Amino acid sequence: MAGLIVQLDQVRRSYRMGDETVHALRGVSFDIAAGEYVAIMGPSGCGKSTLLNLLGCLDRPSSGRYVLAGEDVSALEDDALSTIRGTRLGFIFQSYNLIQQLTVLENIEIPLFYQGRAEVESREIARRLAERVGLTNRLGHRPMELSGGQQQRVAIARALANDPRLILADEATGNLDSNSGREILALFDELVAQGRTLIMVTHDAAIGERAHRVIRLHDGLLESDRRR
Questions:
Q1: How far from the centroid of its chain's Cα atoms is residue 64's Cα?
Q2: Cα(36)–Cα(52) distance, rounded to whole angstroms?
Q3: Which CATH number covers residue 116?
């Protein structure tokens, strides 16, 4: 592992819900080195989703600093955050978030389209990634024609399309049967072995134990930070 990819310093996130102020994060600090495999765990309402949104530049902290790969992104404007999401980050969601009208190949190409890559180049990258996740024989299929595990493989390939510095997975096996879930987790192991940095939110202790490191939140605070 070389260098820090995530640096959080006393990050807080509060928001209004009616007349009440909700303190979702209450001063969270930790660093993650490039190449680490980190699970974020904790009970419902502990701040896991809020933290993942901040790490994914989908939200900004109310206070504190978030430095991503050496750049302080805490107070960047929406356009700058959008550029970072499109060029440095890869997202894998529980619900896959695939576009039903597009084929496997076209779904994988989406991040490349937004980068303005040439069609021929995008198609070649998408084909290589489809092969990497075992979908070579499904390139022309649409999501509704795939199993849940296959759809999640498409989502993983899409997340890799922009060669991200950091991959964020939100309960990525939550909608899968146990066999498909194991296959996806094995694919995560491979990505980390190849040098990718992966942060996943999970409520499943068995899944969390696959990570190199488990960060637990409770009531918006860092409760524990354990490395294997």
A1: 22
A2: 16
A3: 3.40.50.300
